[in-house]
Amino acid sequence: MRYPSIMPINILILSPRSRMRDMLESHLIQQNLELSFVATLPELFLRFEEIRPNIIIICTSVKNVLQSLETYSPLIKQQHTPIVLADEHITEEDGIQLLAASFTDFISLSDATGDTFSRSIRLLTQINQKNTELNATHNTDLLTSLKNRSCFYTHLQCELDHILLNNEALALVSLDIDNFKAFNQCMGYAAGDQVLLDLKNRLLNCARHFPVFRTGADEFFIIITATTIDAAKKETSHLLEVMAGFLFSSFNIANQENVLGISIGVTFSSENALDVDTLTNQANQARSRAKRTHGCSFSIYEPDKDQISPYEGLLESDIWAALKEEQFELYYQPRIDLHSGEIVGAEALMRWNHPYHGLIMPDDFIPISEQTGQIVPMGFWAIFQSGKDLKSIQDAGYNLTKLGVNLSFRQFQDDHLAQTIHRIIDKESIDTQILEFELTESALFSDDLHVQNSIEKLSQIGIDFSLDDFGTGYSSFALLQKLPISALKIDRSFVARLPESTDDAEIVRAIINLAHNLNMGVVAEGVETKPQLEFLIQNGCDQVQGFFFSPPVPLKAFIKMLKTD
C-alpha cells in the first residue's frame, strides 16, 4: 500500500532477536517508510532523542514488558509518539494490560498480515499527526509562539531523564524584565507586548542551539544540555557573553528608546538537583539575587546565598497587626551638604520591629505590601510619624532643610491621596517647607494626569518633591520640566563603581548637569568610600547620603548625631 504523505514515516524499532526483525521487515517493506532498528533499550532511548520518530515498535516478549513496565516509563511518559508492542503471540488479556499501561496498540505477529500492518501504521500515523497539531496549539504561547510553561516542564523532565540515563549534564537559565508590571502601567500593554516580542527575537538569536520557553508574563527559560558539567558551564558562559550584547541594549518603542533591566539566574544539574522543581527554584532564586543589582545582571545559584528569606511567609494579617500595634518605626539617614559638610536633611526609612523575627528590613516587607495595597496606609502612617519626629527634632533645638518621605506608586492609585495627606499635615501641624516626598520613576509615570494633579495640589501647600533612584526607570524629560521636582537623587547603582567605572562616571556627570540645567538640586545615594565622595564633590553634586557618613538610625540616635555635628 502506498502512503499519501509526502514526508516519510519514521519508525523506530527495538528488536533484540534477528528472527523477529526479519519478520517485521517482511511486513513493513512499504514505500515511504524509514525503518531504524536497535537491539537494546538504551540504544532506543538514544535514537529516540536523535530522530524523534513518528512511531515506536517494541518487538520483544510481552511477558517481559508487563513485568518491567517501569523500564519503559520514559517513553510512555512522553505521550506524543505512539508506542506499539509486537510479539509472536499476544493474548487478549495481555493486550488489555498493555493498553492500560498506556501502550497505543499491540500486534500479534503470528496472526498479522501486510494489510494488518498497513492499517495499523496508517491509523497510528494519523494519531501522531493529530497529537502533533494539538500539542503544538496546547504547548505554544500565543503572543511569542515560543513553547509555554506546560511544554517547559515536560521538556525539562525529558532532558533530566536523558542526562540521568547517559550521565550527562544541563544548565537552566531563568530571566525576566525588572519592574515589567510598572512598565506596562506606564507605557501601555501594547508597548509591553512589543518589548516581549523584541526580547523573544533577541533570545532566539542568542540561544540558537537551545530551546527557549516563555513561562509567564515576562518570564523566560533556556535549557542548555551538554555531555559534562564542565561543557555545560562553558556553553552557559558563552551564552551569557552573547546575551550581554543582545539583551542589554535599549528597546525602541514608538521611536522612543527604553532601557530595561533584565535579571538572569543560572543553575546546573547536580546530585542534589536532578528534578524539575529543584532546578527551577534554584534558577529563580539566583534570578532574585541578580535583581538586587539595578540594570541588567546575572547570578549563578549558590546554596549559601540563595536561601529563601525567613520572612517569605509573612501574611497580610501580620502587616495589619504591625500597623495596629505600632510595630513599625522610622529610621533616619542623614543628608550631608557638600558645600558646608553639615547635616542638612534626612531620609525617613521604615523598619519593622516584629515580635518573633526581630528587626525586618524594607526589602522583606515592602514588596508584599505593594502587592496587597497595604503600602497605602503604611505610607500615610510614615507621613504622620515623620511629622511627629520632625517636631521632636525641632524641640531638641535642631533645624533641617528637608526631611524626605517615600511615596509608592501604589499610593497614587488612591483618588484621595492629596486630601488625606492634607488632613494629616493639618492635624499634626507639619512644616510643609521641610517635608519632601521622594517619588520613584514608576510612581511618576503610573498615571500621568492623576500624578500631575496630585503633585500640583501638594506643591501648592509648600511641599517639595525629589525623584528617587533616578536613571533606573522610564524618565521623560518633558514631564520632568512640567512637574515641580526640586531634586534628583542619583541611584546607588551608579555611585557604587565610582570613580573606576568610566561609564558610571559619565552617567553621574550627565545627571548632575541635567539637574542643574533644570534648576534642580542633586543628591547622591549609597556613598560608601572617600573616592566616591571626592568624585561627587569635584563634579558639583549638592548633597550625599550613605554609609560613609551613617547608616539609617533610630530617631534618638539621629538627634544625638545632630548634636555632635
TrEMBL record:
Residues 312-565 form the EAL domain. Pfam families: EAL, GGDEF. Residues 168-303 form the GGDEF domain. InterPro entries: Biofilm_reg_signaling (IPR052155), CheY-like_superfamily (IPR011006), EAL_dom (IPR001633), EAL_sf (IPR035919), GGDEF_dom (IPR000160), Nucleotide_cyclase (IPR029787), Rev_trsase/Diguanyl_cyclase (IPR043128). PROSITE patterns: EAL, GGDEF. This is Signal transduction protein. It comes from Neptunomonas japonica JAMM 1380. The lineage of its organism: Bacteria, Pseudomonadati, Pseudomonadota, Gammaproteobacteria, Oceanospirillales.
